[in-house]
Amino acid sequence: MLTKTITRVGAATALVLLAAPVLTGCATSKNKSDTQYVARDVSTLYNSGKSRLDRGQYKLAAALFDEVERQHPYSPWARRAQLMSAFSYYMNRDYNESIAAAQRFLSIHTGNKDAPYAYYLVALCYYEQIADVTRDQKITQQSLDALGELIRRYPETRYAADARLKVDLVNDHLAGKEMEVGRFYQRRGQWLAATLRFRIVIDKYQTTTHTPEALERLVESYLSLGIPEEARKAAAVLGANYPGSEWYERSFKLIRQHGGSPA
């Protein structure tokens, strides 16, 4: 059984982001939003970017917010524009640009009241790039690290609450990767290598949806390695925790076929 694809953020997350206090800008205006360098007052630039953002022109909005920071770096508007730029890049799926903008904000405004939002945005950018379990999971680990950093620094925020839900999904995804590799080794008859992968799921990702299958696969692998006692132990754990599952039924049959019964 292949791992389920991790749930994407989608519109719900976008609404959470839009609800963030930092994104409540000044009144919109109908000023020109050409991004060529023309010295303009800060409110004109900022409101032009906000207008473009509201109209879904995310790339142009990000450029205008960047221009606020470039032309007026010491203005209070520059701080707000940095996060607005990061959000605009996120909405345009320019995740690397969004991460860079959010991290620039954090490097300059450490301890700012909007720092939790910036950390959240970084985590979302990694989360959105999580690949299928058949591919390299470096981004998945980066997502887990970023979510963990947010939870550690700001455990009581609404962003941390959402991050905890995503951590569960990310762990399930990483466990799915281990299962994918373990099944590959099984198909090749490399039982010891398969066992090591399934043990990782049991030891590191035991609260994920993959645990029952991992235990059953351990039963298969231990029996193939000629160590039925370990197979019975794995089957016993499976029976104690998932007695009604198809994976326990399969383990029970395998143990019986080898002349024993689960401990």
Please describe the structure with a list of short key phrases separated by commas or semicolons.
single chain, mainly alpha, disordered N terminus
Description:
This protein has 263 residues and is mainly alpha-helical. Helix content is 69%, strand content 0%. The protein is built from 12 helices and no strands. It has helices at residues 10-18, 42-54, 58-71, 76-91, 95-108, 115-128, 138-153, 158-187, 191-204, 211-225, 228-241, 246-257. The two termini are 26 Å apart.
Query: Ends: how far apart?
Result: 26 Å
Poorly predicted regions are 1-19, 21-35
Please work out how many helical segments DSSP would assign: 12
Indicate the mean pLDDT: 86
Written as H for each helix and E for each strand, in order along the chain, the element string is: HHHHHHHHHHHH
The biggest beta sheet is recorded as: none
> How many DSSP-defined strands?
0
Radius of gyration: 25 Å
How would you describe the shape? Answer: elongated
Task: Summarize this structure briefly.
The protein has helices at 10-18, 42-54, 58-71, 76-91, 95-108, 115-128, 138-153, 158-187, 191-204, 211-225, 228-241, 246-257.
